[in-house]
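Journal club side-thread
Mid-discussion, someone asked how the predicted structure for our own chain would compare to the paper's figures. Pasting it here so we can look after the session.
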Amino acid sequence: MKLPILSTREVVNILKRIGFEDAPKRGKGSHVALVKRDQVRTRLVIIPQRKTIPRGTLRAILEQAGLTRDEFIRISESK
């Protein structure tokens, strides 16, 4: 299954549903920074502000977030 074409806002909303939150003192300018902390690690995800995020960029965002393509699609389809 292909990754969907999504806007910055849609990607941010999906990541926030799984525990990411706005990174403190980041996200100014043309990018949004989200962070997720657990006992083992802290994940920082940088998302460019765009109407549509290219699939290659979305794959890089998923890698930063520690998600597989299938996990992300499943999360994005559940409301």
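Post-session note: Residues 20 and 29 are 19 Å apart (CA to CA).
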